[in-house]
Amino acid sequence: MIIEHPTERDLLEAAKLLKDGSLVAFPTETVYGLGADADNSNAVQLIFEKKGRPTDHPLIVHVPDVDSVDHFALNVPDFAKTLMAMFWPGPLTLILQKRPDVANAASGHHSTIGLRIPSHPLALELLKLSKKLGVFGVAAPSANRFGHVSPTQAVHVREEFDHDLLILNGGSCQIGIESTIIDCSRDVPVLLRPGQLSVQELEQAIETPIYQQLIDQDPLEDLPTMLSSSAPNASGRLLAHYAPKAKVCLLSPQALGQQLNTYRPKPNELIGIWSQNAFRPSSDQFLCEIMPSDADLCAHELFSTLRDFDKAQVHQIWIEHPPLSPEWQGICDRLKRASSAQ
Ligand code: TXA
Ligand code: MG
Question: Which numbered ligand comes closest to the C-alpha of 31?
Fold first, then answer.
């Protein structure tokens, strides 16, 4: 059930549901989350069941304020405190050492925990009201089935799950791709998942280099060997993830142009094309959409474009590889994973 324009009363009802061990889907500035009380292992178990996600894949815990960090984390390094002060509320998740006695199911029984304060006003208000009822953090992965495209609109969430799930509608998510994740649980900061906040921006804030441990780079190549224990299983880091139903091909602008000139679609075959270059296709079996040349706008449209192509029942999606500059890193990461799924 979607609650349109949630009022303070609706948010209080949602907070009570969380307190009682039920799930609530809510908007954040990145993507919609499927939330449960992070300290209630039965409620957290419902998230894993609903998503079909392996239970050793840790969830991000959303908190309303920096004071709540101490409830979940220990030994927070200074660089993490700086990141919190500069970028929270916002699209940044920090992996910290976890207190042994909290949120074990939410953290996938790892010794670390991912925390963030989202900036969407509805999310913040829900978290504040929940805390007043004794819910210190809301564990919330993206509100989609395991491996699917993340939802950036309330209707996307409804398409993923049964109709009794309470969904707070907060409009279309401003950023559109998931938070940047920095592992702060080791001696040096490590990027686990790129997002809209770029590594350069974060490095400037902490005046420290951030190592990268992304796909195709496991174990860490450029970290001192004593730090090179690999990061836990984590869904967002699986190569085949964020996938629509149609097969996705990521092509250079030249290769895409060539393929459009030479490919003859089979009868009834539909091909979705998302490119910065405007092509004039030879057949109406090619459905062309323009990819924004601004990275923020492109991130905002990415997942809904993939979903729209699925709705149009295209058989393949051809996507022009975006530029390689830093502001495109999060987008390139999601596209690479979407195209690795089949
Ligand atoms: O933007 C976001 O981060 C969204 C919204 C809802 O806040 N949430 C989200 O959650 O993307 P999810 O569950 O789809 O992604 C969680 C990812 C995991 O795949 C993993 O990469 C990382 O967070 N993560 C969480 N806890 C971790 C931990 N203890 N150690 C390492 N990685 C962790
Ligand atoms: Mg996800």
Answer: 1
